[in-house]
Automatic annotation (TrEMBL):
This is Homoserine dehydrogenase. SUPFAM superfamilies: Glyceraldehyde-3-phosphate dehydrogenase-like, C-terminal domain (SSF55347), NAD(P)-binding Rossmann-fold domains (SSF51735). Residues 160-338 form the Homoserine dehydrogenase catalytic domain. InterPro entries: Asp/hSer_DH_NAD-bd, HDH_cat, HDH_CS, HDH_short, NAD(P)-bd_dom_sf. Keywords: Amino-acid biosynthesis, Methionine biosynthesis, Oxidoreductase, Threonine biosynthesis. Belongs to the homoserine dehydrogenase family.
């Protein structure tokens, strides 16, 4: 049985949810997946950092109500978040990057990934910045250091779309996609349809753990723009940068726009899409669209996301599932670790034989 030592970078909603899963499910994973996870280091801007080579107790990490700089009180702890030392020096196999997504330049998360990969550590991340802005560089670094860079949770949280398309749609010729790719804005639009004001709906999404640290990224379309770039680059072989994707969010939609759509048997949805043009170029966009109720994406509600992949050989293939949420996103990290474990242990190769 394998034990993976891991470092958590960022100890917010997602990495706490992963810690809770570790506290409750390690024995199940040992039986069903063939590995256990052992948290050896944690670093968080607010709490500080801590390294314990034998492992930290996951239950204690969750239950202790640490104040600002609280990791400083632990053995091996410091009140400062020394990410660089933790990532480069902690004796871990996998660095779990779940700090905030910076839609402008992807930092400091890109540096976190770079340090880990250069140190010969696998990276699993739910952070969209490094994937949308620096995937090529980080994949090359992973390859050069014989480790994995995995990021299923960067699009649609734990709902499989990137790996599903890579593993099961090879040769189907994906020509484009359109989807609802932000849980917060979809949740907000739904709450506004029920009469709630915009600010209260955003506050609810924050409380439920769907929203970004700065929810402007959700409601102004910046988060979807990163996801459009990731999907276009991964599934269509594009080389898009975020600034090349046109972007409009939902913040200008007023209650009367929402009412008018309902009276016209339609609904506003924030749609992210990309298409391969006749000349081979790829165009991406993010914009609110008024969809008739019978449109397949019109019935996707709350923090649920959906993406319809337009393929040459299969027609339209739609994937629907949670697009945000702490545990749902922690599951994406687990699925990345399972992918690493299977690749390293050769179990996929055995399954295929
Ligand atoms: N919550 C979701 O539903 C969801 C879904 C998919 C992807 N994501 C992504 O996962 C990541 C984590 O999301 P979350 O909901 O846990 O966010 P969060 O805001 O709850 O937690 C982020 C944590 O990172 C810490 N942090 C910020 N900058 C840091 C730095 N430089 N060094 C160390 N720690 C730092 C913060 O103190 C905070 O505790 C984000 O990038 C987010 O975009 C979240
Ligand atoms: N804030 C994002 C999290 C998932 O990336 C959302 O609401 O969809």
């Amino acid at each position: 049985m394998k034990i993976y030592n891991i470092a958590l970078i960022g100890f917010g909603g997602v990495n706490r949810a992963l810690t809770e899963l570790i506290a409750t499910k390690n024995s199940l994973w040992e039986r069903d997946l063939g590995f256990r996870l052992n948290i050896v280091a944690v670093s968080d801007l607010y709490l500080g950092s801590v390294i314990s080579p034998n492992g930290l107790d996951a239950k204690t990490l969750i239950e202790a109500n640490f104040a600002k700089g609280g990791f400083g009180r632990l053995s091996g702890g410091s009140a400062e978040a020394d990410n660089e030392t933790i990532i480069k020096s902690a004796p871990v196999d996998i660095v779990v990057e779940a700090t905030f997504t910076n839609p402008k330049d992807g930092e400091p998360a890109i540096s976190h990934c770079r340090w880990a990969l250069k140190s010969g550590k696998h990276v699993v991340t739910t952070n969209k910045g490094p994937v949308a802005i620096a995937a090529q560089e980080l994949k090359a670094l992973a390859k050069a250091n014989n480790v994995h860079f995995e990021y299923e949770g960067s699009v649609m949280s734990g709902t499989p779309v990137l790996r599903m398309a890579e593993k099961t749609l090879s040769g189907a010729e994906i020509k484009g996609f359109e989807g609802i790719l932000n849980g917060t804005s979809n949740f907000v639009l739904g709450r506004m349809e029920n009469g709630l004001d915009f600010a209260s709906a955003v506050a609810e999404a924050q409380a439920l753990g769907f929203a970004e640290a700065d929810p402007t990224a959700d409601v102004e379309g910046l988060d979807v723009r990163l996801k459009v770039v990731i999907l276009a680059n991964e599934l269509l072989g594009a080389n898009l940068k975020p600034e090349e994707v046109s972007c409009e969010g939902i913040s200008k939609l007023s209650p009367s726009d929402i009412d008018a759509a309902a009276k016209a048997n339609s609904r506003w949805k924030l749609i992210g899409s990309a298409v391969r043009n006749a000349d081979g170029t790829i165009t991406g966009s993010v914009a609110p669209k008024q969809l008739p109720l019978e449109h397949p994406l019109a019935g996707v509600n709350g923090a649920t996301n959906a993406v319809s992949l337009n393929t040459e050989l299969l027609g339209s293939v739609t994937v629907t599932g949670p697009g945000a949420g702490r545990t749902e996103t922690a599951y994406a990290l687990l699925s990345d670790i399972v992918a690493i474990h299977n690749a390293r242990s050769g179990s996929l190769a055995k399954d295929a034989a």
